[in-house]
Amino acid sequence: MRTAATPEPRRPSLTLAAPLVVAALTGCPQEEIVIVGEFGRPIALGSGDASPLPRLVFRPGPCPGEAGGCSSICTGAPETCPADACLPLVVDSGSPITTLVGEGEPTAVRGCFEVRAAEDSFAEPPVEGAAEQAITRFRFDSTPYVQLPPTAADVSWGWQVGDHHASPFVGGVLGGNVLRTMAVRFTDARGSNGPQITFYREFPGVESVLADQGSAALPLQFPGLLLGKLIDDVCQQPDGKDCDLASFGVFDREHPESALQATRLVLDACLGAPPAALTYNAARRTCSLASGPGGSADNFRSPTGVRGKALSKGCTVQAVELAPGDIDHGHDASVLIATGVPGLILFEDSALRLFGSLALPPCMGDGGLSGGVPPSTPACRVGQAGLLRAAGWPPAGTAERPLVELRVRSLALLPGLTQTTGLTACQRLEVRLRALRSQCNYVFSPDNPGQVPRGAGAGCRSGFDPSDPPAASTTAAVVGQAFIPDGGRVDPNQWIPTLVVPAEHPLVTAVRRDTSPEALQLDGLVGTGLLRGTDVVLDYTDPTPSVRVACNDPDDGSCLALPACVPRDDPRATVPACCFGLPEDLLVTLIRDHSAYGCCAALSPATIDELNNAEATFGRELPCPVRGR
Predict the structure, then answer these.
(1) What three-state secondary structure class fits 507?
(2) Computed from CA positions of residues 170, 173, 174, 176, in that sequence, does the dihedral angle turn out positive or negative?
(3) What is the pLDDT of residue 201?
(4) What is the Cβ-side half-sphere exposure of residue 314, based on CA atoms within 13 angstroms?
(5) Residue partners of 386: CB distance under 8 A and separation at least 6
């Protein structure tokens, strides 16, 4: 828990700020990475092509590089690029080591490189002025990284990343050994801003303030620490000479520790949970769980499979017996956050365990499911033509054996357990959704004199023991088709694109080995499927590393973030964190009739405009003023 609020850092000028020296594993001076840059200021990520992968650009060469933008930006194979061109750099939390293109033999070095903004940098034909705007924003000095030649014929490496839909070339990978020294924020398009990345020394704000902004904090899987290779994992003892930093046997024997720190972010997940939202009955002043604001509570299905008619009151998990072959519920999984892969990657043995079979109903091009198939499947099958190119690994999928491509209806991320046993991820999601229902019903409770969102009922616990924490104080975040918006339908086009990779592929065996036995066996990788329509922070710097998720548009059904709802001392005070996830028609009523202005942050931009315009028509003060308007 943070102890003091930290104001948002001032935005510096384009001149690089004073260096931040980040101690690496040993804390020795020779093991430090020196970072010089504009902390707290958003940087435009690459745009202009069909790939969703987060990319910046860099110019190979010494530091400091030339001032100003790039003479050109080369999006082709690195061996075809001019020597003075800037190259794409994919930001990948799943790659433990930073890798850059360079001349000569493959080698591990400690050196310096600079990264630049990349807005419109990958469009064909090039956008006028994009190269000139690709100015240097960060310099990473004394940084361990692997340098590979433009043509890497002798190693299992290629300079393409992505899938069969889009596999752009890159000239480097900004990996976990650099990312872990900071907090890294990915922001999806808002208006005309486009995708952005922001680096922080540490993410500013106390937990209660971040929750009031709609951010759900999700500590990593038990024991809540970064996982991955350490020096003892890859070197033969006792002399430690046979080391394999990279698959081709390159290793910096002088300073091995700095390159082999743990970097893996592993989270508990509930895959394919049915859509879930609250519906509000204004006449009765009651709230129920349904598939969406316009859905029926009777047709609802909980994350563990409890049907709406059988759903009991309260917040504890309800026992349920599922019929053989019934997969219309959430499925517990363990996932690694890997921002350098598209969508969601499931390992084949796990996909078979989760869904029983890959003979799933087909996804239809118009967003529907095939005729006669009930809209109650956690995943549908696109086909079998997939290919995955992940940084540092041979391609997965061939013309003879293409990958199965699915769409998974939702992905819920949950905080790791603080003890060795406890509720499963889907059970914890169910508890949090029940707590959300309790928060909604508590608004008009006699125990809530202000009739504003500020908590859940006293009996709403996260377990059966009265000493268990209140269920509303836990967190969860759901992406995909989190709920069906008013007037919407089950729409696999909103589901998460997913590739199924064979369990024997080197990528799968390596990441499973690197995270065991500290974590549960991994079931897959979460890539850009998490970054769509969200504000995501990979907070490596917190004493308990975590992933923070907020939704850009809380009303479109693609994201549901439930921050910790903890009551304040003032019994009449609105707790903004307790507004997120409540029905928008209820929130509008509370803002208008009960001055619950703290709930404005939980409204979608369209609803805020509608509410403000309605009040402005009568000459009244705007209830939810928008900064900058």
Answers:
(1) helix
(2) positive
(3) 94
(4) 10
(5) 163, 164, 397, 402, 403, 404, 405, 499, 500
Rounded Cα distance between 214 and 64, Å, is 39
Cα distance between residue 38 and residue 16, in whole Å: 6
pTM of the model: 0.91
Question: Which residues lie closer than 8 Å to 449 by C-beta, 6 or more apart?
Answer: 571, 572
For residue 465, what are its two tokens? 């023991």
What is the C-alpha separation between 299 and 290, in angstroms, rounded?
A: 7
Tokens of 537: 């922070």
Six token digits for residue 593: 């009739």
At residue 568, φ and ψ (nearest 5 deg) are -95, 170
Asked if 227 and 514 count as a contact pair (C-beta separation under 8 A), the reply is yes
Beta strands in 272-368, from DSSP E residues, in sequence order:
277-281, 286-290, 331-337, 344-347
In the structure encoding, which two tokens stand for residue 487, read together?
């007037």
**What is residue 67's predicted lDDT score, i.e. its pLDDT?**
86
Model pLDDT, residue 19? 32
In angstroms, the CA 348 to CA 346 distance is 6
DSSP state, 235?
Answer: B
Tokens of 490: 């089950």
Angle at the Cα of 447 (from 446 to 449), degrees rounded to 5?
75
Q: Take residue 310 and report the two structure tokens written for it.
A: 């059988």
State which residues of the chain have pLDDT below 70. Answer: 1-31, 152-156, 190-192, 229-260, 365-375, 464-467, 627-629
The position carrying tokens 């190269």 is 131
Q: Which among 342, 336, 338 has a CA at the least distance from the CA of 53? A: 342
Task: Report the C-alpha gap between 423 and 222 in whole angstroms.
Answer: 13
